[in-house]
Every structure is written in C-alpha cells, then in structure tokens.
Amino acid sequence: MPTIFFGHGNPMNAIEENAYTRAWAELGRALPRPKAILCISAHWYLPGTLVTAMEKPRTIHDFGGFPRPLFEVQYPAPGDLALCKRVQELTGAELDERWGIDHGTWSVLVHVFPHADIPVVQLSIDETQPAEFHYEIGRKLSPLRDEGILVIGSGNLVHNLHTFSWGRHPTEPFDWAVRFEASAREWIVSGDHAPLVGYEQLGRDAMLSAPTPDHYLPLLYILGVRHEDDEVSFPVEGVDGGSVSMLSIRFG
C-alpha cells in the first residue's frame, strides 16, 4: 500500500465541494482498496500513545462554532481489533475504548472513501515526546504497508490560525509559509528527513509555520512509514487563508 499525509484544513471541507475535496475524492478512486486504515490525526493529541480498540468507533465532532450540518456528519466505519493488536505489538501503544474517529480523520475520509466501509483505527500523538519519537513510531509502523494497511497522517505542514484570514478569501499566502513549504518539498523529494524531524531548529519560517506541534507531527509518522524506493507525489496543493497548507504527500 502507499502511505499518505493529508493537509486537512478547515473542518468545513467535510461538507463542501472544492478543489481540495475533489482531489481527495479522485485520490480515493485511484488507490488500491486497503484492508483497513490507520490514521494519525492532529486532533488526538494527549500524554500517551493510544490506539482505538472498538468494533464501532463513534464519530467525534471535536470543534465548535460551525454550522449544524457539520455536526450532523457521521462516518460509521467499523473498527478493526486485529489491527489494534498489531499496532500495539509494533509500537507498544495502549488500547483505548473511549475515543473514536475525530474530524482530522473523517473530514478527509468522507471524500476519499465515502461509503465508510473500510475499517478505521486511530493512533494518538503523545504530546510529551520530542519530534524524533514520532518519526521512530512511524518507522515501526512501516511493515503495515505490506499487510494491506493504508497508513495516513492528517494535519497540516503549515498551520498558523493566529494569522489565518478568516472570511477574507482568497488571500495570498504569507511569504514565510511559501518558503517553508517549498523547502519541505525539496527535502521530501530528496529523501532528506533530518531537517523535517529537526524542524524546531530551522528558524523563523518553521516556527511561524508550525507554532504548535499538533498539526505538524502527523507528517513525521508518514515520513517514518516511507520506503526508500517510494515514488513521491503531491496530489493536493494550495494554501488556505494565507497560513494553512493543504499540501498532501503520497509515497508509493
């Protein structure tokens, strides 16, 4: 299976048709059908490495202030207890029966796999651990690709809501966002992961692009899952509101 990082952006993408959601749908039609999906979402960010272990994970509406139709979205994909145990075996993650599928996962999957008929499992991001830890967890997950599992990360390479142009669309992306995304793309294509893992040392552009780790770290898991001989492509591109990169990255 390939492995993919999705820039998920605004939760409203779940119920809108736009260039991003059309590209997600097209990507879904082009992908081989996976046995199950493992997602690392920016929105399950807490002290610990947990994996959702339930047969029927709930759809979590983990946001506020959006229109009612967004809260009515359900993504009733089944869970996969065997995959949960496999993830636990590979990473040491603890089994969790409380979480479910949050909008970092379902806002993308409603377009990629709209029938919700593929099992979905989520892996949490341990907020207490450094960037290198998350990259190494990704490396431990890489065998799943040969077992028919689609491993995806959902966040944003650039995610700065303090500078986001709410309600003033379209707007030109900030220069620092453009520079950081361009540099990241070069490192990704070349296979040089070290600068991306050590992003906190890259200076102003990186810190403005990822002022908090939560949306950035899912990328490191997917870089870890990557195989050296993977073809690299960018099926979705664009910057929303000047400061949220919608870049998606596919390996394989």
- What fold name goes in the CATH topology slot? Protocatechuate 4,5-dioxygenase, Chain B
- Report the CATH C-level class: Alpha Beta
Strand content: 15-25%
Q: How far is it from the N-terminal to the C-terminal residue, by CA?
A: 7 Å
Mean pLDDT: 96
CATH H-level superfamily? LigB-like
Q: Could you list the spans in which at least 5 consecutive residues all have pLDDT below 50? A: none
- Give the strand tally: 10
CATH architecture: 3-Layer(aba) Sandwich
What fraction, in percent, of the residue positions are helical? 25-40%
The overall number of domains is 1
If helices are DSSP runs of H or I spanning 4 or more residues, what is the number of helices?
Answer: 9
Following the backbone from N to C, one meets helices and strands in this order, namely: EHEEHHEHEHEHHHHEEEE
- What sort of overall outline do the alpha carbons produce when their principal axes are compared? globular
Structural class: alpha/beta
- Rg from Cα: 17 Å
| Biggest β-sheet strands, sense, barrel | 6 strands, mixed
Query: What topology, given as strand order, has the largest sheet?
Result: 5-2-6-1-10-7
Task: Tell me what you see in this structure.
The chain is of the alpha/beta class. It has a single domain, classed as Protocatechuate 4,5-dioxygenase, Chain B. The strands form three sheets. A six-stranded mixed β-sheet has the order 5-2-6-1-10-7, with helices on both faces. It has a two-stranded parallel ribbon with strand order 3-4. A hairpin with a 3-residue loop joins β8 and β9. It starts with a strand and ends with a strand. The relative contact order is 0.23.
